[in-house]
Amino acid sequence: MKMLLRVYRGIVWLANSPGTLILSYAILIVVCGALFSIFEKGKSLGDAIWWAVVTASTVGYGDISPASWQGRVIAGLLISLMVLVVIPLITAHFASKLIVDRDVFRHEEQEELKQNLRHVRALLEQMAARDGITSPDSAAPPAAPSDR
Fold it and tell me: What is the per-residue pLDDT for 16?
């Protein structure tokens, strides 16, 4: 359970930091490209990184494809990570920046509203006490209609 929580926190951290997200994407591409060049004999590092970019973007030109089972596993993991994690995180980050609630109160405004409400409540309680009126949520019994 702790492992899942750490993974979740890591994903949230990545999603909230576009620089880190882009850096993670670049590292993922380079690592998968390097592994591809190791597993697929005869592929240069440049070709392998090109393969990783094409595979990660799910374009899949087909000019380079894995022949070994290790290369296919790397391809499956790369596609899965991109489609299920990286692309949704990028989309969510940009969507959250586009959807901004301009009506949301700042902390200072919230504190001012709370202070004003306390003041209004105190004034209402003073007026009610002066006029002999009790509020429905008070502990005091309500005044009889003839007493008002």
Answer: 76
Q: Write the CA distances from 114 to 102, 105, 106, 122, 137, integer angstroms.
A: 20, 12, 12, 12, 20
Backbone angles phi, psi at 135, to 5 degrees: -85, 155
Could you tell me how many residues make up the chain?
148
Crossing angle of helices 69-81 and 45-56, rounded to 10°: 40
pTM over 0.85: no
Closest CA to 38 of 54, 51, 26: 51
- Residue 143 falls in which region: left (phi positive, over 0), alpha (psi -120 to 50) or beta: beta
| Distance between CA atoms of residues 18 and 32, nearest Å | 21
- The reported pLDDT for the residue numbered 73 is 93
Residue 87 three-state SS: helix
Say whether pLDDT at 135 is over 70: no
Residue 89: name the closest of 54, 68, 106, 97 by CA. 97
| Residue pLDDT, tens place only, 74-123 | 989 998 888 888 888 888 878 877 887 777 778 888 899 999 999 999 99
16-28 as b/e: b if 16+ CB within 10 A: eeeeebeebbeeb
